[in-house]
């Protein structure tokens, strides 16, 4: 599949007939991270990732670089939070919804979101992106910072320096009241 658009990617996605039993052995162990991730297939135009979600451990708000894709909940439930950028380019959540097993939803280019397994049950997702994710931006809202991570890093602040491609300091515009208090 060469440079698919969202509709072509969806058609390809619907032709993938993978079962949980086929995907689970490749989904990866989350370890200390929000999810374990494994790239199942990649070309220069698409990639397929399997993810096994730890319980009650949300990933950081993030985008998918210049990619768009489809996410399929193969087991369990995913709590999905969507964000918009405020006037200072800091993500602010505006919608949280639970996506049950069998849900399939679109992640448009530029979307900022986070996901988590809100239960103690097994939660596995399958992701199809075009093009393969590069330049993913991950946000740390407590530190008021963002970073671009390497292609082998998930949606969390990297532990390894080599996975931190670029760090971006975010700053809140100080209001008149805040300036008067300082």
Name the poorly predicted regions.
174-182
Largest sheet: 5 strands, antiparallel
Number of strands: 11
Kindly report the average pLDDT value: 91
Q: Which keywords apply here?
A:
3 helices; 182 residues; three-stranded antiparallel sheet; 11 strands; five-stranded antiparallel sheet; mainly beta
Task: Tell me what you see in this structure.
- The chain is built from three helices and eleven strands, in the order ααβββββββββββα.
- The protein starts with 5 loop residues before the first helix and ends with a helix.
- The protein has 182 residues and is mainly β.
- Mean pLDDT is 91; it is low at 174-182.
In short:
This protein is mainly beta. It has three helices and eleven strands. The protein starts with 5 loop residues before the first helix and ends with a helix.
Question: What does the secondary structure layout of this molecule look like, with pairings?
Answer:
Blueprint: H1 6-15, H2 20-23, E1 35-42, E2 47-53, E3 68-75, E4 78-85, E5 91-99, E6 104-107, E7 112-116, E8 123-130, E9 137-140, E10 145-149, E11 164-169, H3 176-181
Antiparallel strand pairs: 1-2, 2-8, 3-6, 3-8, 4-5, 4-7, 9-10, 10-11
């Amino acid at each position: 599949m060469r440079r698919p658009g969202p509709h072509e990617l969806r058609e390809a996605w619907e032709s993938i007939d993978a079962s949980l039993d086929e995907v689970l052995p490749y989904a990866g162990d989350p370890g200390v991270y929000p999810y374990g991730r494994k790239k199942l297939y990649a070309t220069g135009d698409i990639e397929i990732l399997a993810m096994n979600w730890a319980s009650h451990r949300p990933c950081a708000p993030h985008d998918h670089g210049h990619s768009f894709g489809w996410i399929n909940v193969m087991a369990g439930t995913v709590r999905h939070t969507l964000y918009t950028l405020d006037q200072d380019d800091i993500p602010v959540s505006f919608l949280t919804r639970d996506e049950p097993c069998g849900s399939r939803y679109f992640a448009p280019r530029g979307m900022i979101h986070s996901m988590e397994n809100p239960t103690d049950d097994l939660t596995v997702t399958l992701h199809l992106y075009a093009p393969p994710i590069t330049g993913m931006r991950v946000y740390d809202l407590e530190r008021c910072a963002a970073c671009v991570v390497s292609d082998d890093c998930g949606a969390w602040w990297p532990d390894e320096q080599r996975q931190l491609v670029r760090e971006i300091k975010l700053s809140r515009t100080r209001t008149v009241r805040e300036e008067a208090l300082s």
